[in-house]
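Journal club side-thread
Mid-discussion, someone asked how the predicted structure for our own chain would compare to the paper's figures. Pasting it here so we can look after the session.
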Amino acid sequence: MNPPRRPRRWSLPFALTAGLLACNPGSKSDTGGAVDAKGQPVVAARPLEPLPPLRVGTRALMEAKQLTGKVAAITSDATHQYLELVLPISGDDMSLEFDQTHVELAGAVPGDLAVVTERMGGAEAKVLVRRALSQQGAPSGALFAERWAERGREHLRVPFTVPDLGGAADDKQLKQRWVEAFSAVFTNSWRESHPWNSFAAGRVRALLPEGFKADAGAAGGFAGRAPRTDLSQLMDTTTGVMSMQEALQHDRGLRLDRNEQARTIAVAELAGPPLVAHPFPAMQAALPKPDGGTAEPLASAVPAEFWYARFDDIRMMLRVLDEADAWITPIVQISQSNPEDRHLSERYQAQLGLKRTGLAKLFGHTVVGQVAITGSDPYLREGSDVTLIFSIKQQAVFDGELAKHLDAHKAEVPGIITATRVHHGVTITENRDPTGAVTQQRAQVGELALVSNSPRAIERVLDAIQSRTARLGDEPDLKYMLARDPGAHPGFAFLSDKFIGAVVGPQQKLQAARRQQALADLLTPGYAALLHGWLFGQAPASSEALIASGLLGVEELKHPDGTPIAFAPGRGASSMWGRPSALTPLIDLPAVTKVSEAEQSAYQNFVTGYQQYWRQFIDPVAMRLDVEGEGGAAKATLDVRILPLISATDYSEIERIVGTTRAQVSVIDSGLQAVWAVGKDAGLRSDLDGMMGMMVGKEAGLGWLGDWVMLGIEDRATLVELLSRFDDKVQLALPKPTGNEFDDVELWRKVGKFPMFAAAAINNPAMLVATLAAIRTKVDGVAPGWVEWGEFKKYRDLPIVRVGMSKTMPMLPNREIADAVALYYVQTGQAIALSLDLPTLEAVADRMLGGKLPKAGEQGEAQFVFEAHSAVGAPLWTSLLWAIQGQANDAQASARRSAEILLRGDPSVQSDPKAFTQLAVNYLGFVPVTAHGTTAFILGPSGAGDPVLGTTLAPTHVPLPIPGSPVEQLMQRLTGLRGEVSFDKEPAPAGADARSLHTRFMVSLGAAPTAP
């Protein structure tokens, strides 16, 4: 199969590349001295450059002038009073953009709510208030707004007052207008998107006398809304889950019928993507050593359509899981802007009846040999089957320790019951509690011990062990991959043709789509309970009370097919589909036998889209892991091969651009570099050559270009200086400078010191000289006298040429700019390098003279190399720290919205962090976390914030890194990265143009930070 243009599938190594520019505490600079061992000059170490400090403190919420208005209308129902406030606006205040969902009401009690009906631009602000009947007197408080000012975007608190209630008309339609306004602002709250918003926007109409009667639509202002869930979107549940749930909750909020169609079409009639297998046996036979691979014994215990990961030692497996907790999880949360904790580790440990703490010590290599993890689908986030296969050395010790782990869970989870069953002669012991928190399945076959969270999965593994089903170890794609890259590795993972085929097949796709719909059903009672807290100031006393309020229908305590949903306020919902925090694994759901016409059409749409991205072939994926070093600092190498990539694929288009040449790239001590090998057949070379010829003339071109090009950044203070000037995500904003920013000489000086460089190999120095002369002649002809071009100085006997603006250049706003910024270049017979910063260019010249630039490589070496290293506290490290923390701060909008929904939905958890966490798990399926990694949210009139970083309107900027935060763990653990990418030719039976994508990532891991 061909790769998609959307960077989602099987792309974790590539996602890491963009985020892991980290540090190397052990890196060394050149020491002083006259010559090295070979008599070459040694450059003195550059002095440490001071970095600008963060501008810490709280960005104050500006106080605007008070608005004075009147109460235009008033009405009441049995529990609340409704007020319509009209607040005149004039002058600069007309440019205010109001927060429609947050209004501060003096003396407010839980359940008091107000909405602003217009965001900005009017001559008056209209506020609709719903407050408890106990509230007396004229309302007052404040609105929240923002606007553009000279210093940038600023947030304001706009106080308002209403002298009295006199003159207010008794308007019986006011309650309905309040409901319509609440619905409108929560439907359109694009800045704080959340499935609960979509639910609440529709379900609030339960406050109206007509409730959800069909004939109330037009009068209630909700007519014309139809179900907007596209079932075909549900087929791809690896992406866009939040938006899909928003669409589903839109329908649930309005109690729109799901319109379940009759399922009359046999699932066998649905054709999956027409994918064909590669000729792996013939490909393997054509390898230099067809039988040279290292066997995977545990793969013979795994069904052919399961994913597979094997570790030689359980301690390595646990270490990988620890690293995932420490830094992979923060990367995912930051990159996807969803800072939430789904307690995946705790969930699967409980289901398996295991405790990870101390497991490595108890199950060291003397008790357990190799261990494998396997499963049937990729949906670990929602809920998947996980089976561990242990090769046992000491059975009694193993059984005793597992019993201790289960006893520990029994002390935490009440009602665990043990039962046994026999599957083809093998006894399976099940330990399960009524809620499904523990679902341990255990079996033993010879020296193999199985522990699973899924009844069906452990049976499928037993079938593989006893050869009643196809086994992964017998599959030709695995055999080929092992022989293709022979060698033993302590960690190995494999995604087979059959696994990928099952993931995209109709059975799994339809089950996943139906499960997403079932999840929307399971979320509905909890969402309704939270809305009850918003509207009435407290959680419902019982499910019956929630139904009596009209916010939940009795029919909503079952799925459309009649399957019951158990629910009690505070404890969340559950059914055969699972619960919001842990859905039932797909493999344990009833098999799909019949589908509806809508499901058939949706799956066909999925197949069509899949084919557009992946086309004909399935690509197996093999991953090999090696780790050097124990304890703290270590180096991990992840080797990934995806094959083969046929000539029609997007990957082959990339190879057309860069050609087939390889590069040998030296490791760097510090800084960042990216190197591309540029072959003589590269499309990039010919495209740029033609472009330059058109711009400069036939005498200029890239005929001089050698086998590689490079971009890099030196680890210099200017990185942080420029970031400090423009970035205000982690620090207070600078006052906006007066005058034109392009006239700022100091800014130009910083730009002129930016430590970025470019370099390229030279294979024809004479042609390069001719090209540079042609460019200079062209520039002089187009802009005579504007550019000064000539030798500036010599560095280690190499002439450095400066190309800069002339002080006589027309329209130059400040003549000093001509001295502040220029382009410098230096060349030898092998390479040319360019930079804006002279010290940076000199550092590159040192590498040129020291033989540390790339060289032409051999087959098997990389075509693209990316590398980054820095020291803790150095400029590159600091820049990355600020950038990642800023991204984490940006991602807080989603987390703070979830926190506010919970804190207002059940005010009793505002002072109980443990209860807040449990409520989040039960009702949302996850716990929102702050940018510093806690659940310590606080609720104020303008929404949720936290004690460390403040609120959205008044953020607090603190010294970085924040002790104990996910970003600190990330920056301490990832101390360096090197990635190598190549497109390797496959044996002839795969096709004349068949290539595999080969990537290697070397990650330097520093010592884990101690707890604060």
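Post-session note: The chain is about 30% helix and 25% strand.
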